[in-house]
Design goal:
- The complex is a heterotrimer.
- Chain A is an alpha+beta fold.
- Chain A has helices at residues 57-61, 70-76, 81-94, 102-131, 135-155, 177-199, 203-209, 217-223, 228-231, 239-242, 268-291, 344-349, 352-355, 361-371, 375-379; strands at residues 17-21, 33-39, 42-49, 164-165, 168-169, 311-319, 322-330, 338-342.
- Chain A is built from 15 helices and 8 strands.
- In chain A, the strands form 3 sheets. A 3-stranded antiparallel sheet of chain A has the order 1-2-3. Chain A has a 3-stranded antiparallel sheet with strand order 6-7-8.
- Chain A is globular.
- Chain B is α/β, with parallel strands linked by helices.
- Chain B has 3 helices and 9 strands.
- Chain C contains 6 helices and 5 strands.
- Chain C has helices at 6-13, 20-30, 41-49, 81-93, 105-109, 141-155; strands spanning 34-38, 63-64, 72-76, 99-103, 132-134.
- The chains are: A alpha+beta, B alpha/beta, C alpha/beta.
- The A-C interface holds A 22-26, 30-31, 51-56, 59-60, 63, 71-72, 75, 78-79, 138, 141-142, 145, 148, 158-160, 375-376 and C 36-41, 43-45, 47-48, 51-53, 65, 77-78, 80, 82-83, 86, 90, 112-113, 115-120, 137-138, 140.
């Protein structure tokens, strides 16, 4: 399986066919339209067309006060909504000079890492579904329901939480939250071994993903790819280690980097295994947080009116898809003048036309699945 | 690189670059020279363009904010361009491929056109949409292809 | 004596006399195959409803990818103006009898984006006729299951052979 021409075209008169993988399709992870120019089964050019979920988030944020924007940030990347509101709160707090209590920082990190586990577990289930394996999907959803149960005891909602506010969090941890989470983590680690045996070293899975869609590291940085897709190409860049925010500088964890164990460095198998190993690192982080979480009042620093000072800021955050950036310009009023969200999946998707030239149509599905996009945050 | 040498080496590229000590932002008003300045910045190892933001200033000017980062020296800088409406900006897509989609979004939302961009068309809204939504004086049309766009709740209460 | 359901009559006697309308409605309500049209966050709750814990398959509900093979279209998520024409076209490609469930507050009436959303269609009932509205943002999988049960009740009141009833 390689990228060269699979048929001898010297004696046949061929023409390109334009195939439309329309906005409604079971494996495009949302409403994405791909215009594929193919020569038989081999792809020569892809044009992604987005905008079918453009919900005018930036226009809403120019008309609403800072506290009321938090539910809208949740709905952008609905699979990691804690990350979105956490990143937004960090950006607003940078412009306000508030002192966040330590208990709040620990709670935010615990909740973010639980959300990262849920998002990466969802990726494993859906990537298996793309490649053809249905069982990991059912197993993963059964375990993800337990994480969602934990979030429901904490915030009251299953998917979109409105939990992390600028200045603190909305509720303190309930009574038995810590014991229940530790029970869940003890239950979840053997389940990961089972899913590992099903997918990671499976011969069919390796043949479908190894050496497909190899992304070189200089091209990845030039296209603005971040997150697990960049780490799979061999670049050791994680914002939690390189520019630590919150309490990540006190925690001890590793950053998994792709090494090309089954094929080349930067192929789709690497992008899968990096996310799988990140689940294990997140479990380590949560256990460390529980050992040293202090007492305190989580509402101590919540401001009565959120009115940042005049100026602008760009703050970066490591979400489960990559670098999430918020660029906020404030005029001293309680409504932002301009709020721009730099979403990681927007730049990750822009590398798809480069990656899929010369591969077959079913490989395009594998590459798209391994980039792990969410259309809600691409279109905003 | 220390902050002083960094700001000196960037300010010395062209005399029209201004640097604000308080906010730590470089700004440029003569946008015709932007492509050459960006090439020099890329030669200083700034290989990662993080974000391009389009801004509608109140005084009928538009602005663009470029956030850049270097993965080797771990420095980040911000560069602002200020210009009137209807000015065309040189595209930096040939230097950083990230700019491809970000500049299309700036055109779609704010109406800023870029010179030498390979594919200058709308990215989020339909191709025949009228107007640029993120401008402060934007008023959405009443109908689009026969679908009614209500402006307030009275039409269905 | 209370009216027995079709199932109870069959269990009791093994020999049932019934109107053709009721038999057809019973068959149709027992297997509403849905057309997976997940657009945004509500799509995740729709997937969670077919997952092991809430298990939609015990109702006979099964996802189909093509509109020609489906009975119900569950519009889950925000419908934008760019997408609205495609929703209408896909609805027209489904074959009769077809039903639409509007899931989530964005599909019901525009949702949280009603005020400044210039590109959001304020309710999918502006382009396709809707039978059941499921409120919530996002609705729990149990709420979606209740919506499907309401749809089953609605299917059982249809009349194919007799006079049309005023419901």
């Amino acid at each position: 399986m390689s990228k060269e021409n699979l048929i001898d075209k010297s004696s046949i008169n061929t023409d390109d066919m334009i195939l439309n993988m329309g906005p409604q399709h079971p494996s495009t992870h949302g409403v994405l339209r791909l215009k594929i120019h193919t020569d038989g089964e081999v792809v020569s050019k892809i044009e992604p067309i987005i905008g079918y979920l453009h919900r005018c988030f930036e226009k809403h944020s120019e008309n609403l006060p800072y506290e009321q924007i938090v539910p809208f940030t949740d709905r952008c990347d609905y699979l990691s909504s804690m990350h979105m509101s956490h990143a937004y709160s960090i950006a607003v707090e940078k412009m306000m000079d508030i002192e966040i209590p330590e208990r709040v920082e620990y709670i935010r990190v615990i909740v973010s890492e639980l959300q990262r586990i849920a998002s990466h577990a969802f990726f494993i289930g859906v990537f298996g579904l793309d490649v053809g394996a249905i069982t990991p999907f059912t197993w993963v959803f059964r375990d993800r329901e337990r994480i969602i149960d934990l979030f429901e005891t904490l915030t009251g909602a299953r998917l979109l939480y409105n939990y992390v506010w600028p200045g603190g969090v909305s509720h303190d941890l309930p009574e038995k939250f810590i014991t229940r989470t530790i029970e869940f983590l003890d239950y979840f680690e053997p389940q990961l071994i089972e899913v590992d045996e099903l997918l990671t070293t499976n011969k069919i899975f390796i043949e479908r993903t190894a050496d497909i869609g190899v992304l070189d590291k200089d091209i990845a940085i030039n296209y603005g790819v971040t997150g697990p897709a960049l780490r799979a190409s061999g670049v050791d860049f994680d914002l939690r280690k390189n520019e630590p925010y919150s309490i990540y500088d006190k925690l001890d964890f590793d950053v998994p980097v792709g090494r090309g164990e089954m094929g080349t460095v930067g192929d789709s198998w690497d992008r899968y295994i990096v996310r799988f190993l990140e689940i294990k690192e997140s479990i380590k982080i949560i256990r460390q947080c529980f050992k040293s979480i202090p007492e305190g009042d989580v509402h101590a620093a919540l401001p009565k009116k959120v009115r940042p000072r005049k100026g602008s800021t760009y703050s970066r955050f490591e979400s489960s898809r990559g670098e999430l950036g918020y660029y906020i310009i404030s005029d001293g009023k309680n409504v932002p003048t301009r709020l721009k969200m730099r979403s990681p999946a927007f730049s990750n998707l822009s590398v798809l036309p480069y990656l899929s030239e010369g591969w077959m149509i079913s490989d395009v599905i594998t590459i798209l699945g391994s980039l792990d996009i969410v259309l809600g945050e691409i279109d905003r | 690189m220390s902050k002083k040498t960094l700001t000196d080496s960037i300010s010395s590229i062209n005399e029209s670059i201004a640097y604000d000590e308080e906010t730590n932002i470089f700004s440029l008003k003569e946008v015709g020279t932007w492509l050459d300045i960006a090439t020099e910045i890329k030669n200083l190892n700034f290989n990662y363009l993080m974000c391009i933001t389009s801004i509608d200033m109140e005084n009928s000017q538009l602005a663009l904010a470029y956030n850049l980062h270097s993965t080797e020296t771990k420095d980040s800088i911000e560069f602002n361009l200020f210009f009137d409406k209807d000015t065309e900006i040189p595209s930096v897509e040939s230097l950083w491929r990230t700019a491809d989609w970000h500049e299309r979004e700036a055109y779609d939302m704010m109406g800023i056109k870029f010179i030498n961009h390979p594919d200058m068309k709308r990215i989020l809204l339909p191709q025949d949409w009228e107007g640029y939504p993120l401008r402060k004086n934007y008023k959405v049309a009443d109908y689009y292809h026969g679908m009614y766009i209500p402006k307030d709740k009275t039409s269905w209460e | 004596m209370a009216e027995l359901t079709l199932r109870e009559k069959f269990d009791k006697d093994n020999f049932v006399v019934e109107k053709l309308d009721n038999l057809i409605n019973w068959a149709r309500a027992g297997s509403p195959w849905y057309f997976q049209f997940g657009l945004a966050c509500c799509a995740i709750e729709m997937m969670a409803a077919s997952a092991p814990r809430h298990d939609l398959e015990r109702f006979g509900v099964f996802p189909r990818a093509s509109p020609r093979q489906a009975d119900v279209m569950i519009v889950a998520g925000t419908v934008t103006i760019k997408m609205a024409e495609r929703v209408k076209r896909l609805y027209e490609q489904m074959s009769d009898p077809k039903y639409v469930i509007s899931m989530g507050s964005c599909a019901n009436s525009g949702g949280p984006y009603w005020q400044h959303g210039y590109h959001v269609l304020k309710g999918v009932d502006l382009v396709v006729p809707v039978d059941v509205y499921v409120p919530g943002c996002p609705p729990r999988p149990e709420a979606l299951i209740q919506g499907i049960m309401e749809l089953q009740k609605h299917i059982k009141t249809q009349s194919t052979f007799g006079k049309a009833k005023n419901v």
